């Protein structure tokens, strides 16, 4: 249970303990059965064992169904709640043995089934107690019930079982995965109502057949149920195959988007894996807010592509080692509109364009491009705005150092209610540690000298394997980045010569930038004095700097002197 957080463990422990007590009570009640009841109970157990080994997985959900639900409902009608609880536990255990290897999941599922059958069966008995023609409870193989009483009881039991079972299971997964209960239930259990209705109808038909014709005449009904079950299984298997194909296409689609986004991210010399971190932050926040799967997928794609419009921004602005002028900033703002226009031509199955267009809108309405305010800004764009800002300010820039984690958090708090949605800021900071752990596990954390070195010794073997896996993709990223580094360095050199720095500072910055284009062990910059007719070392960097520091070179003396005398490079 290492992946269970504290809340999930408490919920699991309480559920298992209560379910175990309910199961013990049910077993004790079953000991009082007479021989006829035992024969009926064992027959139902055999049917549950037979059908429980072949659960049907519902495509696109975590739910599965078996014909065993029919016999659980039937046992409530024939033998009452304790027998149904025992059958439900057996059916659940058999089913989970085929679908999971985790003992905690098996115990939790069996406990939930025990509790939900107890409640739904009690609801059925309550409906019977209100019936005008029934004088005693439990039924225990009594003559057939009035139709209206039977229908009301079955409807009440079916609805109770459907709601309680779905919500109880969803609560467990929601606590484990930090997702909303409603979102998980909607995705995994909403449509299971059909299986419960089918099971209730089959149970009612079998109950009527047993009371009217006897057990022998039920066998044809079982054959019909088996045929129906086989039909369902074939249908769902085909549907599963189509769902898998669609999932693979979606995965390839997102992989293509990610490759494009990585190339765009690499073009920006001041970022490193920025879009990948933003994607993890954004998707995590989408789950925290209980957004639909379509919206979460839109966040994943939007996080990768939110800066695609920077293709229309000149490199000298994009990589400017200083603050932008008003005119330059206006050109930079175009990237939101351009990005939205580019992506509007892609038929995304989820709303990506609003995220890209509005991720620079502000809570107070002072953002761009449309000046949206407050709730007018799409929730997905509000989420991306915050996580994008948090990650961006932690990157080093030529004109400032990257902020520390605490400084970036303080920036978000200052902007809460002004630039950012305060509720999103609050929940993002509450879940930040969890998101950062996920980023670190993928080897995508911010690069940072001493801090990274201090962590290196603590890496586990699993961390090293994951980092090795990511090395291939990061290598391509770095190659793209290096392809633009020379232009970026030359731009900065030209900008340095155009500034008002003194000669010493200019030469120092020049050497630093040259190192990005031409790696060296030692670099000496000589300045020629026309009056003295020789050159002196104005700046020395690298190995043996002291040996060159006071050296003078006359024209024609050595390689440097030859270049000086002939005005030619060697």
Strand order within the widest sheet? 3-4-5
Report the principal-axis shape: elongated
- How would you characterize the largest beta sheet? 3 strands, antiparallel
Record field, number of beta strands:
5
> Average pLDDT value?
77
Question: Would you tell me the structural class of the helices and strands?
Answer: mainly alpha
**What's the Cα radius of gyration?**
35 Å
Order of helices and strands: HHEEHHHHHHHHHHHHHHHHHHEEHEH
* N-C termini distance: 68 Å
Q: Report the sheet-strand fraction.
A: under 5%
Give the proportion of residues in helices: 55-70%
Low-confidence stretches: 133-143, 448-474
DSSP helical segment count: 22
Commentary on this structure:
The chain is mainly alpha-helical. 68% of the residues lie in helices and 4% in strands. It is built from 22 helices and five strands. The chain has helices at 6-30, 35-52, 68-79, 81-99, 103-129, 147-177, 181-188, 193-213, 219-267, 274-288, 293-305, 315-318, 326-344, 353-358, 379-392, 405-415, 422-441, 449-456, 461-497, 503-517, 545-548, 558-566, and strands at 56-57, 64-65, 522-529, 534-542, 552-553. The strands form two sheets. It has a three-stranded antiparallel beta sheet with strand order 3-4-5. It has a two-stranded antiparallel ribbon with strand order 1-2. Strand 3 and strand 4 form a beta hairpin. The longest helix is centred in the middle third of the chain and has 49 residues, at 219-267. The chain is elongated, with a radius of gyration of 35 Å. Mean pLDDT is 77; it is low at 133-143 and 448-474.
